[in-house]
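Hi R.,

Here's the input for the fe (iii) ion complex you asked about:
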Amino acid sequence: MRYIILSFSALLLLLSLILFLQGRQGHPLPNHLSKIEKWITPNNRVKVVSTTAIIDSIVEQIGGERIDHISLIEESMDPHSYELVKGDSEKLSFAQIIFCNGLNLEHGASLRYQLQHHPNTFALGDIIQKKIPEKILFNQNQPDPHIWLDASLWAEVVDPIVQALIMADPEGKSYYETQGEKVKNSIVNLDKTIRDQLKMIPSEKKHLVTSHSAFNYFTRRYLTETLDEAINDQWQSRCSSPEGLAPDGQLSCFDIQCVVNYIFQYKVKTIFPESNVSQDSLRKIQSICLEKGFLIEISKNMLHSDTLGSFSQTYQEMLANNANILYQTWIS
Ligand code: FE
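And here is the predicted structure with fe (iii) ion in place:
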């Protein structure tokens, strides 16, 4: 009898513990809910939308469990010309905070309108431009938006993200500041790693041909040999591409010929496609070079310019992957 009473007491204790833990954790959301349905479910977390996956990656690392975050523009889609699709307006209206790149990256008219009319939109590139205008590159009077491809510049987005999250969730101040410091350190360390890695490549090999002009900041930061080269626009001789700052522009024979001339001048052996841009222009260049008896290869490994790509979970992985592809190709 004593044994039965003891067993019954143990069972009651176990049931109480389970109920206590369930109470602490709240009711878990059903697994069948989509990412958007989970994001839109009311809770105490800050609801954040970032336009690109690259911004979203940094926001996620800083906000952690205190926020619910999504990116608006899906992988492989071009952020330059993105126009809103069904459901996007609801996401943007529901967001407490929107982070976008600015510097005219998101120039699709419908998206730009929504970004301009939300009370809490933070254009991170525009904030950096105000702080350090001398670091922003221009092409035909248009700002080059691809600042994330220079990690030393992209580290500058951390503080504005931390400040915006504190504004929406003051109780999380110390958490966001601690996370922000960690994220900034990891980006700064990555910057040093890539600089050291690409310094090992002989100068004459560091000439980068890609589909669109996304790698100007990357070139200035990681492919130059001297400070002079980096600050006096001489870095421009280290990269070339047939398509402009946005891959949605018209491609001209002149643009193609300029890249062909560049390839001949610097004896470029490999050209690099990008994951979110058509390879048509690179194939055309390859074919013209072949007609002139010059064999060039289109790399089988695609660079990631405007998206994270399927192999990278984070911004840091994406940039390190780009540097590794160039290093492995050029060192061989
Ligand atoms: Fe781009």
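One thing worth noting: The pocket of fe (iii) ion is lined by residues 80, 146, 212, 214, 305-306 (CB under 6 Å).

Cheers,
M.
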